[in-house]
């Protein structure tokens, strides 16, 4: 019924917990496709320590450099009606698959669902609910998703035929660390999204996450999507998308100033200025970043 997809790169510390959370699911009808992306650490040895026949292990000979590549490779191998993604340092609640399958079988109008998740640190300490537990209502989520990627990939389950219809995750470098967002937008153009009840996953805010890569703080910006009118032209106006990009850049500038990362804050302030030179907000952010004001 479900093909669970896990891409692994340098997750020796956490991948064992990740896989145990899948194998402990109360819903038993699944296959677990693990694509090991040529990790230089001990990730492969940890995976090989799980002698479960439901695990289909793929060992890449060359590192892909992009999370999209192992995901797409696994999607191409999948046999399930549904695809469920899980990052190698995240974990699921034991009843995650059971609740999500039941919800999707009862609501065929939602070919993609996601769930709430708890953000945890490297040691598994619970920090806060992602998005503070606030999400759009079930249905047409395109505009809300264009404004912000509120979906955690490790909570997503979708019908395999939807993935085939929209294509896989983008392997373009410009979407590095934003390939999941771009994929969800393509899904949302023609599909309604649903959310079953419950906090069913834990998302690890890890110090070695790919989302801490230097590229991540600019390439995933909504600004990138301005150059992709095929994503939004039938749903939103260019002025609306430009306004969303401005708001997203402003939020990011505030965030990086609070983290004392003033160079990153200045980059987002410059995006605000480029998007709307007449708006005072971008210039204020630029000045505050230059003066190193949190």
Question: Can you offer a commentary on this structure?
Answer:
The chain is α/β, with parallel strands linked by helices. It has two domains: 2-209, Spore Coat Polysaccharide Biosynthesis Protein SpsA, Chain A (Alpha-Beta Complex); 221-290, no CATH class. The chain contains twelve helices and eleven strands. It has helices spanning 15-23, 43-48, 68-77, 96-106, 142-147, 160-166, 179-188, 216-219, 229-232, 238-258, 262-275, 280-290, and strands at 2-8, 30-36, 55-59, 82-85, 91-92, 112-113, 116-120, 126-129, 157-159, 193-194, 199-204. The strands form two sheets. Strands 3-2-1-4-9-6-10 form a seven-stranded mixed β-sheet, with helices on both faces. A hairpin with a 5-residue loop joins β7 (116-120) and β8. α10 (238-258) packs parallel to α12 (280-290) and α11 (262-275) packs antiparallel against α12. The longest helix is centred in the last third of the chain and has 21 residues, at 238-258. The protein is globular and about 60 Å long. The N and C termini lie far apart (50 Å). The model has no long low-confidence stretch (mean pLDDT 92).
